Amino acid sequence: MLIPFLMKNCFQLLCTHKVPAAGFKNAVKSGLILQSVSSDVYQNLAVEDWIHDHVNLEGKPILFFWRNTPSLVIGRHQNPWQECNLSLMRERGVKLARRLSGGGAVYHDMGNINLTFFTTRTKYDRMENLKLIVRALNAIQPQLDVQATKRFDLLLDGQFKISGTAAKIGRTTAYHHCTLLCSTDRTSLSSLLKSPYQGIKSNATQSIPAMVKNLLEKDPTLTCEGLINA
After folding, report:
1. What is the rounded distance in angstroms from the CA atom of residue 227 to the CA atom of residue 214?
2. pLDDT above 90 covers what percent of the chain?
3. 49-54, long-range: CB within 8 Å, 24+ apart, which pairs?
4. Which of 109, 130, 138, 176 could form a disulfide with 148 if both were Cys (CB 3.0 to 4.6 A apart)?
5. What is the rounded average pLDDT of the residues 210-229?
């Protein structure tokens, strides 16, 4: 895989991983696990789309970990005035970004892990990816009650959303990305994801509110670093 020099500076290779049959769909031979060295939402979204557009994923899926300083990311078909408290974001210096996948608005900070699963289009399987995350969580904390839903969210204790899903499906490649709430600032999350504007009429996709909870609130040993390693 040939990667431009400037792009190489954006992430580190955690490992070239021999993926077991229970890992990625169809028991591929190997894959790459990358972790971003940037906490800038614009750089990370750009790396994500560069991988989708330029990397041959045949037989080599990629799992990409990334975290951002406080940012609010909206889906491809969303209206920021309906989704965000833009004045509060400006006041606090919180960045606004639009991703190329669909889905709802998401608050990012360093306590929120983003995972992107890159595969060929034929091997794209969001549920298998979520099951992989659940297995990793149960490996480090068997008592955790985490389940994937039909909406491709992850729920903790059957009611608290700890992960939401979005995807981009291209002609030959695809990616599924999701969040994992570890120790995010829930006060900022709730205040920034609440628009003060009323009466806006739009055909934009609207986010669906949900109760959320950090994994660290359930178990203080579940740090971001430990979850990424798992």
Report:
1. 12
2. 81
3. 49/100, 49/168, 50/7, 51/116, 51/118, 51/175, 52/118, 52/168, 52/170, 52/173, 52/174, 52/175, 53/170, 53/173
4. 130
5. 95
Domain residue limits, the chain: 5-229
What does DSSP say about strands 95-98 and 71-74: parallel, antiparallel, or unpaired?
Answer: parallel
- 173/120 Cα distance (integer angstroms): 4
What amino acid is encoded at 78 in this protein?
Answer: Q
Give 142-190 pLDDT, tens digit per residue.
999 999 999 999 999 999 999 999 999 999 999 999 999 999 999 999 9
CA-CA distance, 214 to 217, in Å (whole number)? 5
Predicted confidence at residue 7, as pLDDT, reads: 53
What letter does residue 32 receive in the DSSP assignment?
Answer: E
56, 76, 106 from 109: Cα distances, Å: 30, 20, 10
What is the CATH number that goes with domain 5-229? 3.30.930.10
> b/e per residue, 83-92, with b = 16+ CB within 10 A?
bbbbeebeee
CA 144 – CA 218 distance, rounded (Å)? 8
CA atoms within 13 A on the CB side of 218: 20
